[in-house]
Amino acid sequence: MYAFDDTAAVLSVLERMSARAEPLTQLLERQPGAREARWVHLLCGPVAETPAAAHPPALAGAFPADGLAQRVTALEQHLQAMEERLRATEERLLGLESVIAKPEP
User: Fold this and answer.
1) Can you give the residue range of the structural domain that contains 105?
2) Number of neighbours of residue 11 by Cβ within 10 angstroms
């Protein structure tokens, strides 16, 4: 690992590497929310897409679009079943409370 003096030295090296006949680095556009533009290496060939497109923000596109509707439907059905179980449990509890609250003859 090389210890650069400052960020300007790093940028200078990256720019020289991108200016070669066969570039080794490439500057990507600064993405929204990013403080600075990003650099990528080209050691494995040209970059097909920007890292921002390859790795969207958390949860954005975390589920495939076609499976998302099915997942939401399944979650809604599960929630409805849980609500029905809760209602039934509450009714049983109220019934038990009324039995316990009655004084013995």
Assistant:
1) 63-105
2) 15
